[in-house]
């Protein structure tokens, strides 16, 4: 089966949410996300610079339950909250972040590392403000978007995340929006942002355009089971709907790599040594 057919078959199996029902137009088709990151196949690139992340908490505006996830939205009319460096040539503006999570702690992330699943994954979405003037324009173009992915693991309570968790009951139903100010998205990044994988891929929700430079952090962050439980108390459904559906398993199925290379900003020596240990 060729790459494109495999993806179609995978998409066909995803029937848990209305977003994935009905005809989907997948533009291109062989640079789709998410993927499994195979550590021993990733290629160390010494040219990959550290990321330059400069977020202004004052650009934080609101939280919105869009019926698939909750979006923390930022004012992106100026270059006040930006991402530069790493694999990027241009300046990218932060417009929103959101998460994907499972119904249990055993799965929920979109990307995986050597098939390892995490209970949730954070996506910080940025668009290229050097080349484009609006998100809607950038989303259709190559190098239009840069998304940072961060894996969440269950452990200690995350103090930074708690302000967000406390706001979630107010947006339990689909389409509800509340004002949300002065949230520093940088508090959700791992302490080490120098080590990451990067590859060219797509949005994991429609329009699925292949406009994304993915930057997936090697280091995860820790959140408590109770914090994730509040994510799971959100609803896919609006207040008017008779049957309410819990917002869980809001991730896309994995896509084929189709010959792409995943580059790493760090040397894979340690992983290689560990791999050896297991085979002997
Ligand atoms: Zn996402």
UniProtKB/TrEMBL annotation:
Pfam family of the protein (one): Carb_anhydrase
One GO location term (cellular component): mitochondrion
Functional note: Reversible hydration of carbon dioxide.
InterPro entries per UniProt: CA_dom, CA_dom_sf, Carbonic_anhydrase_a-class, Carbonic_anhydrase_a-class_CS
Listed name of the protein: Carbonic anhydrase
Limits of the Alpha-carbonic anhydrase domain: 10-266
Catalytic reaction list: hydrogencarbonate + H(+) = CO2 + H2O
Family: Belongs to the alpha-carbonic anhydrase family.
EC number of this enzyme: 4.2.1.1
Keywords of the record: Lyase, Metal-binding, Zinc
SMART domains: Carb_anhydrase (SM01057)
One GO MF term attached to the UniProt entry: carbonate dehydratase activity
Required cofactor names: Zn(2+)
Source organism (scientific name): Cottoperca gobio
